[in-house]
Write a structure and sequence with these properties.
alpha+beta; BirA Bifunctional Protein, domain 2; 2 domains; seven-stranded mixed beta sheet; two-stranded antiparallel ribbon; 9 strands
Protein backbone atom coordinates (compact mmCIF):
# COMPACT_ATOMS: atom_id res chain seq x y z
CA UNK A 1 0.00 0.00 0.00
CA UNK A 2 2.95 2.28 0.63
CA UNK A 3 4.03 1.89 -2.99
CA UNK A 4 0.46 2.65 -4.16
CA UNK A 5 0.38 5.88 -2.18
CA UNK A 6 3.78 7.04 -3.44
CA UNK A 7 2.81 6.19 -7.02
CA UNK A 8 -0.48 8.11 -6.61
CA UNK A 9 1.48 11.14 -5.39
CA UNK A 10 3.78 11.08 -8.44
CA UNK A 11 0.89 10.63 -10.87
CA UNK A 12 -1.15 13.40 -9.24
CA UNK A 13 1.76 15.86 -9.25
CA UNK A 14 2.43 15.13 -12.93
CA UNK A 15 -1.24 15.59 -13.92
CA UNK A 16 -1.70 18.75 -11.85
CA UNK A 17 1.44 20.20 -13.40
CA UNK A 18 -0.03 20.21 -16.93
CA UNK A 19 -3.51 21.53 -16.00
CA UNK A 20 -4.31 24.74 -17.91
CA UNK A 21 -7.45 26.11 -16.28
CA UNK A 22 -9.12 26.30 -12.89
CA UNK A 23 -12.02 24.06 -13.87
CA UNK A 24 -9.67 21.23 -14.80
CA UNK A 25 -7.71 21.82 -11.58
CA UNK A 26 -10.88 21.39 -9.55
CA UNK A 27 -11.44 18.15 -11.42
CA UNK A 28 -8.01 16.93 -10.34
CA UNK A 29 -8.77 17.73 -6.74
CA UNK A 30 -11.95 15.68 -6.88
CA UNK A 31 -10.21 12.85 -8.73
CA UNK A 32 -7.44 12.41 -6.18
CA UNK A 33 -8.71 13.88 -2.90
CA UNK A 34 -12.50 13.70 -3.16
CA UNK A 35 -14.74 11.41 -1.08
CA UNK A 36 -14.72 8.90 -3.90
CA UNK A 37 -11.23 9.84 -5.10
CA UNK A 38 -8.22 7.61 -5.62
CA UNK A 39 -6.63 8.33 -2.24
CA UNK A 40 -9.84 7.28 -0.46
CA UNK A 41 -10.04 4.14 -2.62
CA UNK A 42 -6.54 3.07 -1.60
CA UNK A 43 -7.17 3.74 2.08
CA UNK A 44 -10.19 1.45 2.07
CA UNK A 45 -7.69 -1.44 2.06
CA UNK A 46 -6.22 -0.44 5.44
CA UNK A 47 -8.39 -3.02 7.13
CA UNK A 48 -6.12 -5.74 5.72
CA UNK A 49 -3.01 -4.23 7.30
CA UNK A 50 -1.48 -5.28 10.57
CA UNK A 51 -1.80 -3.12 13.67
CA UNK A 52 1.82 -2.05 13.28
CA UNK A 53 1.41 -0.95 9.63
CA UNK A 54 -1.82 1.01 10.02
CA UNK A 55 -0.41 4.10 11.83
CA UNK A 56 2.53 4.23 9.44
CA UNK A 57 0.32 4.10 6.33
CA UNK A 58 -2.19 6.50 7.89
CA UNK A 59 0.53 9.03 8.60
CA UNK A 60 1.89 8.68 5.05
CA UNK A 61 -1.62 9.13 3.60
CA UNK A 62 -2.16 12.32 5.62
CA UNK A 63 1.24 13.61 4.52
CA UNK A 64 0.41 12.92 0.85
CA UNK A 65 -3.02 14.52 1.19
CA UNK A 66 -1.49 17.65 2.73
CA UNK A 67 1.22 17.71 0.06
CA UNK A 68 -1.25 17.42 -2.82
CA UNK A 69 -3.50 20.10 -1.31
CA UNK A 70 -0.51 22.47 -1.27
CA UNK A 71 0.39 21.54 -4.85
CA UNK A 72 -3.19 22.21 -5.97
CA UNK A 73 -3.34 25.54 -4.08
CA UNK A 74 -0.02 26.68 -5.59
CA UNK A 75 -1.19 25.68 -9.06
CA UNK A 76 -4.46 27.52 -8.49
CA UNK A 77 -2.64 30.74 -7.65
CA UNK A 78 -0.48 30.31 -10.74
CA UNK A 79 -3.51 29.80 -12.98
CA UNK A 80 -5.33 32.80 -11.46
CA UNK A 81 -2.32 35.00 -12.18
CA UNK A 82 -2.20 33.72 -15.77
CA UNK A 83 -5.91 34.32 -16.16
CA UNK A 84 -5.58 37.88 -14.81
CA UNK A 85 -2.66 38.57 -17.13
CA UNK A 86 -4.65 37.35 -20.16
CA UNK A 87 -7.56 39.56 -19.14
CA UNK A 88 -5.32 42.58 -18.70
CA UNK A 89 -3.84 42.01 -22.14
CA UNK A 90 -7.23 41.49 -23.80
CA UNK A 91 -8.73 44.56 -22.11
CA UNK A 92 -5.73 46.78 -22.62
CA UNK A 93 -6.65 50.32 -23.64
CA UNK A 94 -4.53 52.25 -26.06
CA UNK A 95 -4.54 55.69 -24.47
CA UNK A 96 -2.93 57.18 -27.58
CA UNK A 97 -6.06 56.56 -29.69
CA UNK A 98 -8.26 59.60 -30.41
CA UNK A 99 -11.15 59.83 -27.95
CA UNK A 100 -14.83 59.71 -28.82
CA UNK A 101 -16.45 63.10 -28.32
CA UNK A 102 -18.60 62.82 -25.16
CA UNK A 103 -22.30 63.65 -25.25
CA UNK A 104 -22.93 66.86 -23.34
CA UNK A 105 -26.15 67.04 -21.39
CA UNK A 106 -28.40 70.06 -21.11
CA UNK A 107 -31.14 71.33 -18.85
CA UNK A 108 -34.61 70.25 -19.99
CA UNK A 109 -36.51 73.31 -21.30
CA UNK A 110 -39.29 72.86 -18.74
CA UNK A 111 -36.81 72.68 -15.87
CA UNK A 112 -35.03 75.75 -17.25
CA UNK A 113 -38.31 77.70 -17.41
CA UNK A 114 -39.37 76.52 -13.93
CA UNK A 115 -36.06 77.67 -12.47
CA UNK A 116 -36.30 81.00 -14.30
CA UNK A 117 -39.84 81.62 -12.99
CA UNK A 118 -38.75 80.72 -9.45
CA UNK A 119 -35.71 83.03 -9.69
CA UNK A 120 -37.86 85.93 -10.91
CA UNK A 121 -40.35 85.66 -8.05
CA UNK A 122 -37.69 84.96 -5.42
CA UNK A 123 -36.09 88.19 -6.62
CA UNK A 124 -39.41 89.94 -5.84
CA UNK A 125 -39.46 88.60 -2.28
CA UNK A 126 -41.54 85.44 -2.76
CA UNK A 127 -40.80 82.14 -1.01
CA UNK A 128 -41.31 78.65 -2.47
CA UNK A 129 -43.97 76.49 -0.80
CA UNK A 130 -44.77 72.85 -1.53
CA UNK A 131 -47.51 70.39 -0.64
CA UNK A 132 -48.79 66.85 -1.31
CA UNK A 133 -49.83 65.72 -4.79
CA UNK A 134 -52.37 63.31 -3.27
CA UNK A 135 -54.75 65.76 -1.66
CA UNK A 136 -57.94 65.95 0.39
CA UNK A 137 -61.08 67.25 -1.30
CA UNK A 138 -61.26 69.69 1.61
CA UNK A 139 -58.10 71.50 0.51
CA UNK A 140 -58.43 70.98 -3.23
CA UNK A 141 -61.98 72.31 -3.45
CA UNK A 142 -63.99 73.13 -0.32
CA UNK A 143 -61.63 75.62 1.35
CA UNK A 144 -61.21 77.28 -2.05
CA UNK A 145 -64.90 78.19 -2.20
CA UNK A 146 -65.83 75.11 -4.27
CA UNK A 147 -68.51 73.28 -2.30
CA UNK A 148 -69.62 69.74 -3.16
CA UNK A 149 -72.44 71.03 -5.38
CA UNK A 150 -70.47 73.89 -6.98
CA UNK A 151 -70.79 73.73 -10.80
CA UNK A 152 -67.22 75.02 -11.25
CA UNK A 153 -65.95 71.62 -10.06
CA UNK A 154 -66.74 70.45 -13.59
CA UNK A 155 -63.84 72.63 -14.77
CA UNK A 156 -61.55 70.22 -12.89
CA UNK A 157 -62.19 66.70 -14.23
CA UNK A 158 -60.46 64.97 -11.35
CA UNK A 159 -58.75 61.68 -10.56
CA UNK A 160 -60.49 60.55 -7.36
CA UNK A 161 -58.96 57.81 -5.20
CA UNK A 162 -61.84 57.83 -2.70
CA UNK A 163 -64.77 60.20 -2.35
CA UNK A 164 -62.55 62.49 -0.21
CA UNK A 165 -59.06 61.89 -1.64
CA UNK A 166 -57.85 62.79 -5.13
CA UNK A 167 -54.82 63.78 -7.16
CA UNK A 168 -54.67 67.55 -6.83
CA UNK A 169 -56.03 69.44 -9.84
CA UNK A 170 -54.05 72.62 -9.09
CA UNK A 171 -51.44 73.79 -6.59
CA UNK A 172 -53.98 76.06 -4.84
CA UNK A 173 -54.22 73.63 -1.88
CA UNK A 174 -50.65 74.60 -1.05
CA UNK A 175 -51.83 78.20 -0.68
CA UNK A 176 -54.56 77.16 1.76
CA UNK A 177 -52.20 74.97 3.77
CA UNK A 178 -49.67 77.82 3.94
CA UNK A 179 -52.30 80.31 5.12
CA UNK A 180 -53.43 77.89 7.84
CA UNK A 181 -49.83 77.33 8.93
CA UNK A 182 -49.29 81.10 9.16
CA UNK A 183 -52.21 81.31 11.62
CA UNK A 184 -53.35 84.74 10.47
CA UNK A 185 -49.87 86.27 10.30
CA UNK A 186 -48.77 88.51 7.43
CA UNK A 187 -47.16 89.14 5.04
CA UNK A 188 -47.63 86.00 2.92
CA UNK A 189 -45.70 85.95 -0.36
CA UNK A 190 -45.31 82.48 -1.86
CA UNK A 191 -45.18 80.63 -5.15
CA UNK A 192 -46.22 76.98 -5.34
CA UNK A 193 -44.61 74.92 -8.13
CA UNK A 194 -45.61 71.28 -8.66
CA UNK A 195 -47.34 68.59 -10.69
CA UNK A 196 -51.12 68.59 -11.05
CA UNK A 197 -53.52 66.10 -12.61
CA UNK A 198 -56.74 66.37 -14.61
CA UNK A 199 -58.69 63.88 -16.70
CA UNK A 200 -57.82 65.47 -20.05
CA UNK A 201 -57.39 63.68 -23.36
CA UNK A 202 -53.73 64.05 -24.29
CA UNK A 203 -53.19 65.97 -27.51
CA UNK A 204 -50.90 68.70 -28.84
CA UNK A 205 -52.08 71.23 -26.23
CA UNK A 206 -53.41 69.12 -23.33
CA UNK A 207 -51.94 66.60 -20.91
CA UNK A 208 -53.48 64.65 -18.02
CA UNK A 209 -50.41 65.62 -15.95
CA UNK A 210 -48.76 69.01 -16.13
CA UNK A 211 -46.67 71.45 -14.11
CA UNK A 212 -48.25 74.49 -12.50
CA UNK A 213 -46.85 77.44 -10.58
CA UNK A 214 -49.26 79.49 -8.50
CA UNK A 215 -48.55 82.59 -6.48
CA UNK A 216 -50.19 84.15 -3.45
CA UNK A 217 -49.78 87.48 -1.66
CA UNK A 218 -51.77 88.37 1.47
CA UNK A 219 -51.21 91.50 3.53
CA UNK A 220 -52.85 94.75 4.55
CA UNK A 221 -53.82 96.96 1.63
CA UNK A 222 -52.98 94.53 -1.20
CA UNK A 223 -54.65 95.82 -4.35
CA UNK A 224 -55.37 94.95 -7.97
CA UNK A 225 -52.76 97.53 -8.91
CA UNK A 226 -50.08 95.55 -7.04
CA UNK A 227 -51.18 92.38 -8.86
CA UNK A 228 -50.90 94.21 -12.19
CA UNK A 229 -47.41 95.51 -11.37
CA UNK A 230 -46.19 92.11 -10.13
CA UNK A 231 -47.38 90.30 -13.26
CA UNK A 232 -46.02 92.97 -15.62
CA UNK A 233 -42.62 92.77 -13.93
CA UNK A 234 -42.66 88.97 -14.26
CA UNK A 235 -43.68 89.06 -17.93
CA UNK A 236 -40.97 91.57 -18.89
CA UNK A 237 -38.32 89.48 -17.16
CA UNK A 238 -39.61 86.26 -18.76
CA UNK A 239 -40.39 87.45 -22.28
CA UNK A 240 -38.34 90.62 -22.60
CA UNK A 241 -38.58 94.32 -21.79
CA UNK A 242 -41.48 96.08 -23.45
CA UNK A 243 -43.69 92.98 -23.74
CA UNK A 244 -47.29 94.19 -23.75
CA UNK A 245 -49.74 92.73 -21.24
CA UNK A 246 -53.49 92.98 -20.92
CA UNK A 247 -56.02 91.80 -18.33
CA UNK A 248 -59.43 90.43 -19.38
CA UNK A 249 -62.34 89.83 -16.99
CA UNK A 250 -62.81 86.15 -16.14
CA UNK A 251 -64.21 83.90 -13.42
CA UNK A 252 -62.53 81.70 -10.83
CA UNK A 253 -64.38 80.57 -7.68
CA UNK A 254 -61.45 81.43 -5.40
CA UNK A 255 -60.77 84.97 -6.69
CA UNK A 256 -63.02 88.03 -7.08
CA UNK A 257 -62.52 89.90 -9.31
CA UNK A 258 -60.77 87.43 -11.62
CA UNK A 259 -58.79 88.07 -14.81
CA UNK A 260 -57.11 86.24 -17.68
CA UNK A 261 -53.66 87.61 -18.50
CA UNK A 262 -52.48 87.88 -22.12
CA UNK A 263 -49.23 88.98 -23.71
CA UNK A 264 -48.81 90.36 -27.22
CA UNK A 265 -46.60 88.63 -29.76
CA UNK A 266 -46.02 90.51 -33.06
CA UNK A 267 -46.29 87.31 -35.09
CA UNK A 268 -49.03 85.49 -33.17
CA UNK A 269 -51.09 88.30 -31.68
CA UNK A 270 -52.50 88.18 -28.13
CA UNK A 271 -51.66 84.96 -26.24
CA UNK A 272 -53.19 83.84 -22.95
CA UNK A 273 -50.53 82.89 -20.40
CA UNK A 274 -52.14 82.75 -16.93
CA UNK A 275 -55.13 83.42 -14.70
CA UNK A 276 -55.22 85.68 -11.66
CA UNK A 277 -57.38 87.75 -9.33
CA UNK A 278 -57.98 89.08 -5.85
CA UNK A 279 -58.36 86.33 -3.25
CA UNK A 280 -62.03 85.75 -2.49
CA UNK A 281 -62.96 86.98 1.03
CA UNK A 282 -64.47 83.57 1.81
CA UNK A 283 -61.16 81.83 1.07
CA UNK A 284 -59.35 84.21 3.43
CA UNK A 285 -61.97 83.72 6.10
CA UNK A 286 -61.84 79.91 5.92
CA UNK A 287 -58.05 80.05 6.21
CA UNK A 288 -58.25 82.11 9.41
CA UNK A 289 -57.79 85.66 8.02
CA UNK A 290 -60.15 88.56 8.60
CA UNK A 291 -61.13 89.78 5.09
CA UNK A 292 -62.00 93.17 6.59
CA UNK A 293 -58.36 93.67 7.58
CA UNK A 294 -56.45 91.71 4.94
CA UNK A 295 -56.62 91.37 1.18
CA UNK A 296 -54.58 89.39 -1.27
CA UNK A 297 -54.07 88.34 -4.85
CA UNK A 298 -53.33 85.00 -6.48
CA UNK A 299 -52.23 83.84 -9.90
CA UNK A 300 -51.54 80.54 -11.62
CA UNK A 301 -49.74 79.46 -14.76
CA UNK A 302 -48.94 76.23 -16.55
CA UNK A 303 -45.19 75.73 -16.97
CA UNK A 304 -45.74 73.83 -20.23
CA UNK A 305 -47.74 76.77 -21.60
CA UNK A 306 -45.00 79.26 -20.73
CA UNK A 307 -42.32 76.94 -22.15
CA UNK A 308 -44.21 76.44 -25.41
CA UNK A 309 -44.71 80.18 -25.84
CA UNK A 310 -41.13 81.04 -24.94
CA UNK A 311 -39.55 78.53 -27.33
CA UNK A 312 -42.25 78.33 -30.04
CA UNK A 313 -43.03 74.67 -29.34
CA UNK A 314 -46.28 73.59 -31.01
CA UNK A 315 -46.88 70.20 -29.33
CA UNK A 316 -46.90 69.70 -25.54
CA UNK A 317 -46.09 66.00 -25.98
CA UNK A 318 -42.59 66.92 -27.15
CA UNK A 319 -41.83 67.99 -23.58
CA UNK A 320 -42.39 64.44 -22.28
CA UNK A 321 -41.05 62.14 -25.04
CA UNK A 322 -37.33 62.56 -24.16
CA UNK A 323 -36.48 62.65 -27.87
CA UNK A 324 -32.82 63.66 -28.03
CA UNK A 325 -33.30 65.21 -31.45
CA UNK A 326 -35.78 67.62 -29.87
CA UNK A 327 -33.90 68.21 -26.60
CA UNK A 328 -30.56 68.96 -28.32
CA UNK A 329 -32.08 72.19 -29.56
CA UNK A 330 -31.99 73.52 -26.00
CA UNK A 331 -28.34 72.81 -25.11
CA UNK A 332 -27.64 76.53 -24.95
CA UNK A 333 -30.64 77.26 -22.71
Amino acid sequence: MREQLLRLREEAVAEIGVVEDLTALQGMKVKYLGKKGELTTILRGMGKLSKEERPIIGSLANEIRSYLENVIATKGEELEEQQLEKRLQSEKIDVTLPSVEPMVGATHPMIAVTQQIEDIFIGMGFEIAEGPEVELDLYNFELLNLTKEHPARDMHDSFYITSEILLRTHTSPVQVRTLQAKEGKVPVRIICPGKVYRRDDDDSTHSHQFMQIEGLVVDRGVSMGELNGTLLSFIEKMFGEGTEMRLRPSYFPFTEPSVEVDIYDPERGWLEILGAGMVHPRVLEKAGYDPERYTGFAFGMGVERITMLKYNIDDIRQLYLNDLRFLKQFQSV
